[in-house]
Amino acid sequence: MVDQVKPCNPRRREYYCDVINPREFRNTSPTIRTSSRSQMYACSHHRSVGLNSWVKALVVGVVSCAVGCGGDGSTSGTADTDRYAWTQLTPSGVSARVVTTDAACPDAMVDGAVMAMDPRASTSPSGFDVRVCELAVPEGAQTLVVGEQSLRLPPSDTPTKVVIVGDTGCRIKQTDTTVIAQACNDNSDQGWPFSRVASAIAAENPELIFHMGDYHYREAPCPDGNEGCEGSPYGPNWASWHADWFEPGEQLLPVAPWVFTRGNHEDCGRAWLGWFLFMDASPLPTDPWNQDNCQQFTPPYRVAVGDLSVAVMDSSSIPKSANPPTPDPDAVAEYAAQLTAIAALLADDSNAWLTTHRPFWSPRANLPGDGDPLVAIETTLIAAIEATGGLPPQVPLAIAGHVHQFQKMTFDDGRPMQLAIGGGGTQLAPPVTSDAIATYPEVFGTLGLDPMNFDMFDEFGFVVATRVGDAWTASLRDLDGGEITSFPLPAAP
Ligand SMILES: [Fe+2]
Ligand SMILES: [Fe+2]
Q1: Domain residue extents for the chain
Q2: How does pLDDT run across 53-107, given as a tens digit for each residue?
Q3: d(CA 213, ligand 1 centre) in Å
Q4: Which of 28, 53, 160, 440 could cross-link 374 (Cys pair, CB 3.0–4.6 Å)?
Q5: Taking Cα atoms as reference points, which of 107, 24, 5, 114 lies closest to residue 66?
Q6: Pairing assessment for the beta strands 179-181 and 172-174 based on DSSP bridges
Q7: Ligand 1 (ion): which residues have CB within 5 A?
Q8: Per residue in 164-216, pLDDT tens?
Q9: How far is the CA of 404 from the centre of ligand 1 (A)?
């Protein structure tokens, strides 16, 4: 059991933070769970008693309180004294990144040699009391250590195991008429299980991880009296990014190099500050935190590890239209240009995957009162593909997130298999039922999709893609890594 160590932010609320065993960290559902570099805490309103020996051994000195323990949803915050580190693939190679509250950037050890990490920006945006540092890792490097943390570099050959996950943050949203508050403090499938998904992915020990976008969901305060999300921070700031991404992902971040895709939750009207500070693959522009300088569309790029070639497309920005959606002419032109650029990027590849946040040919079931019950979501992207004459023939697989469930669509007209992998932790979407498909046949007509070629699982989880020889197989996993189904991934003809 957990044991009370000290009151945590008593000026705000009567929370107490307790050092706990790592196993308990995942298995308990206190009001707030958080961690520092070497210790894990549970925070709740109530004191508990009876230190066990394991905990006693860890309680040394003063325990500092991490983000969330104050619990009043501040708009900024000095959240943690931790260091979060990872590697990610960019168009110019491997980038090592660190988020730290230290005044200076740490050094990295690359193949045993000290290399200085540089600040990613001269200043962080308002509300982000952290420094982000980066290092362009020399090509061919074998080992990388930052502080005491080893960071995985890409394999020298084509990976044999890749994980794909998407849509991971805890949804707290308020509109003029509704409040949606996911139970961020509950890691069961009735709440917000991203921490369990992250643990299950780490246990797979993949060589590469794709995140399909939508990291930041805590946009509004937790409603008064709602214990499910009580204490959650909110807003486009470090405290919310920490709660939604860095704290639950801390153990997963160094496990494998990442390919980050930008979601619509990171567009220029929402969590763009964090996206560009932490994850965007390119150097920051001058005066990066000026709203006028937010890039609505970042250019597509290609990464490759061995023979695995991947195009990354930013589809975060499509103006919200009526429901059912209609194509936005300006966005159609922009995305058609991006698809043309992708065809050029992949010109020398015989086989490549295309990743982007929004699925091209996906049905979405809407909640009652939210437009038509079943819609073809991305008519803008469908129009852009039609404007370019189709996706490049060397793309057998298009991977997306955005729809908060798992979808698989296959076609017999030359289009690639489309996967939507959006069950990473964010509140699941309503299932696309056979009744709805039969009631609204025009939706699948718009998608050009035979309902017999559509599979859907409305469960939390992720996908593990494994390679044997040249053949890839996908395994859909639940939130603890158990297999739900598996299927072969196509190769280019
Ligand atoms: Fe999402
Ligand atoms: Fe999305």
Answers
A1: 6-58, 161-489
A2: 222 222 222 222 222 222 233 333 334 446 999 999 999 999 999 999 998 999 9
A3: 7
A4: 440
A5: 5
A6: antiparallel
A7: 167, 214
A8: 999 999 999 998 888 999 999 999 999 999 999 999 999 999 999 999 999 99
A9: 6
